[in-house]
Amino acid sequence: MSEEKLLLIPGPSPVVPRVLEALARPTVSHVGPEMVRDLREACDNLKRIAFCDEGQPFIVAGAGTLAMEMALLNTVGPSDRVLVLSQGYFGRRMADVCAAFGLQHDVMESEWGRAVVPEDLERRLAEKSYNVVVCTHVDTATGACAPVEDYAAVLDRTGSLFVVDGVCATGGVPERMDAWGLDVVLTAAQKCLGTPPGLAVLVLSPLAMEKRRGLDRVPAYYADLLRWLPVMQDPAKYFSTPCVNEIRAFAEGTRIILEEGLEERFERHELFASALRAGLAALGFTLFTDPRFLAPTLSVVRYPEGLEDKAFRAGLYGNGVVVAGGLAQTAGRVFRMGHMGNLTSAQVRFAVEAVERSLAALGFRFEAGAGRAAVDSVLAA
Ligand SMILES: Cc1ncc(COP(=O)(O)O)c(C=O)c1O
User: Fold this and answer.
1) CA angle, 9 then 11 then 15, to 5°
2) Ligand 1 atom, smallest distance to 140 CA
3) What are the residues whose beta carbons fall under 8 Å from the beta carbon of 318, sequence distance 6 or more?
């Protein structure tokens, strides 16, 4: 049975053949000319993807959680205070990472499905100052997209370093580091960047690099960015063997993004999100996330009365589409559909048709074809 299913979980996202071909190329020397060229190009492309001309990119074997750890350990000093803005699961994880390393931190948490509003952040910062403020751009559990640009405007007046978790946003939602004043964007390979999992990815602004250089030592060895800096600046150097094939596939992924154009890519994510949501609404589904905070990269969808989570997702799997269940308190009440990376409009149509086939097989009452028609009307607009 073909494993080829349309992967619409909130990451990993579908990996296109061009990237898989790059991944499958013979493994070359990690300090050889092919790797030097590709790692250098991937770093340059990443600066453009994060809109950070003088930024310092890091691409290291690991996952998004390693990137979270690296971002904190390399910007937070022993007497610093961190404010974690949380709108769900991964905001809490950021607080857990702080706790794991004994970093002084406070958490401002919004209701699930929403995000902390900039006015509340401003009020909080008037009461207490923080050296580093961290937010989750898009929380994958709640589908809520934080108003990062507005946060940055508030923080611009306080001088706090601003760290953005873009694991479910970078490459699909704008993160204009220079223009907005973001100091660290951390992300991972497997979501909007459309490449296989296995890379922790960060871009640090000159200010964030200066902060790192100002820290005597950090409680890390592999996660110490100053140990990776020489490799990122000259990939012919060695610190630890990078995952050669993944990095070359990642380089190919960044080429695809820049060929599409960043603004075009951001618009496509918005368009596909609207199309899928229109299709699902026409079939009786509603959204969990507050409309003010809808993320372009995934949808967290409430089940209508009478539709059972596991049966629905199993049916959809049988029809060739994989979606994820809810996390924590939303488990069984919602499903999460990712619509990020290098998706095509044909895949968007295929997804809503598969939902219709699954509903029909479950005997759920709906207007046949209504979902597909709604998707077509948005995509045609
Ligand atoms: C917003 C966000 N941050 C961090 C992570 C952790 O990334 P990883 O699973 O690659 O460790 C995820 C993973 O889904 C995420 O969505």
Assistant:
1) 100
2) 16
3) 358, 361
Is residue 289 within 6 Å of ligand 1 at its C-beta? no
The pair phi, psi for residue 257, each rounded to 5°, is -60, -45
Q: Examine the pLDDT at 1 and tell me if it is beyond 50.
A: no
| Chain position carrying tokens 């409009």 | 345
Between CA 155 and CA 163, with CA 161 as vertex, the angle to 5 degrees is 100
pLDDT tens sequence across 291-327:
999 999 999 999 999 999 999 999 999 999 999 999 9
Fold of 6-11+261-380: Aspartate Aminotransferase, domain 1 (3.90.1150)
Whether ligand 1 lies within 6 angstroms of the CB of 12 is answered as: no
pLDDT in tens, 96-152: 999 999 999 999 999 999 999 999 999 999 999 999 999 999 999 999 999 999 999
Q: Is the peptide bond before 12 cis (omega within 30 degrees of 0)?
A: yes
Residue 79 identity: S
Rounded to whole angstroms, how far apart are CA atoms 39 and 245?
Answer: 11
Q: Is 168 in the pocket of ligand 1 (CB under 6 A)?
A: yes
Q: Residue 64: name the closest of 219, 214, 190 by CA.
A: 190
Q: Are 378 and 275 in contact (CB under 8 A)?
A: yes
Structure tokens at 290: 């507050």
- pLDDT tier for residue 4 given thresholds of 50, 70 and 90: confident
Across the chain, what does the average pLDDT equal? 97
**Site of tokens 């100002």:** 214
Task: Label residue 381 by pLDDT band (50, 70, 90).
Answer: confident
The residues spanned by each domain of the chain are 6-11+261-380, 17-260
CB-based contacts of 329: which residues, under 8 Å, 6+ apart? 112
Verify whether ligand 1 is closer than 6 Å to residue 64 (CB atom).
yes
Stated pTM of the model: 0.97
Whether residue 74 contacts residue 218, with contact meaning beta carbons closer than 8 Å, is answered with yes
CATH annotation of 17-260:
3.40.640.10
